[in-house]
Amino acid sequence: MPSTHHTNKPAPAAMPLERVFVLKLADSATAGELTGRLEHVVCGRQLEFGSARQLMALLRQTGPDGRRKP
Asked: If we measure between CA atoms, which residue out of 45, 28, 25 comes closest to residue 37?
């Protein structure tokens, strides 16, 4: 008889398509030197980053149209 295991975790929230990105890491990227680009799925806009800090800033500053917020 199959085991049924229930958890009290909530179901994952739906991810709005406007906030979906593809993360492309450079071949030379390392844990200490994270470089690459983000591609906004909805509009295809590509944003380059040269550090983990820049990557996080881009994620926070990019609007639903793929453009940087003012």
From this structure: 25
Q: What is the pTM of this model?
A: 0.67
Region 7-18 average pLDDT? 73
Cα separation, 14 vs 2, whole angstroms: 29
Which residue's structure tokens are 């799925």? 41
Instruction: Give the DSSP per-residue string, 8-68.
Output: -PPPPPPPPGGG-EEEEE-TT--SSS--EEEEETTT--EEEESSHHHHHHHHHHB-TTSSB
Closest C-alpha among 31, 42, 32, 39 to residue 58: 39
User: Are 61 and 69 spatial neighbours (Cβ–Cβ below 8 Å)?
Assistant: yes
Q: Give the chain's length.
A: 70
Higher pLDDT, 19 or 6: 19
